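TA notes, week 10

Several of you asked for a full example with nothing omitted. So below is the full record: structure tokens for the whole chain, then the designed sequence directly under it. When grading your own attempts, check the secondary structure regions first.
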């Protein structure tokens, strides 16, 4: 909202932050002069590098494309727990029972729907020959 003080640096800063996080914002202006509102819309659009979308009454709408978000990938990170849904038939003709299980990184799900620790690869003797 822009009060009777007009476009102050604090208003510009808040509008810039809102555009950075949302992209499309509405600003209500409490000034009765239409020409002053048009000037505010033009100044906001120019200084914030935004596009003026709409001006209806005392409501101004601005748009600016959202900046791309930076994802920091941690290459040493291992997969975390995941939730798995299991459908288990109870009786013929009835709905299957749904169970949600949390499977950790060192666990596996058996065909019967039980959680077991992951199998470690077995070491074979060098004397016995190559692994099959």
């Amino acid at each position: 909202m822009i009060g009777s003080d007009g476009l102050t640096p604090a208003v510009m800063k808040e509008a810039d932050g809102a555009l950075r996080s949302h992209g499309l914002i509405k600003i209500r202006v409490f000034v009765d002069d239409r020409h002053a509102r048009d000037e505010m819309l033009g100044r906001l659009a120019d200084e914030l590098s935004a596009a003026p979308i709409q001006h209806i009454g005392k409501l101004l709408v601005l748009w600016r494309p959202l900046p791309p978000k930076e994802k920091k990938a941690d290459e040493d990170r291992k997969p975390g727990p995941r939730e798995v849904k299991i459908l288990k038939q109870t009786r013929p003709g009835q709905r299957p029972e749904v169970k949600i299980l949390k499977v950790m990184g060192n666990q596996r799900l058996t065909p019967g729907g039980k959680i077991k620790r992951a199998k470690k690869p077995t070491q074979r003797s060098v004397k016995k020959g190559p692994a099959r």
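Residues 9-63 form a domain with the Translation Initiation Factor IF3 fold (CATH 3.30.110.60). Use that as a sanity check on your answer.
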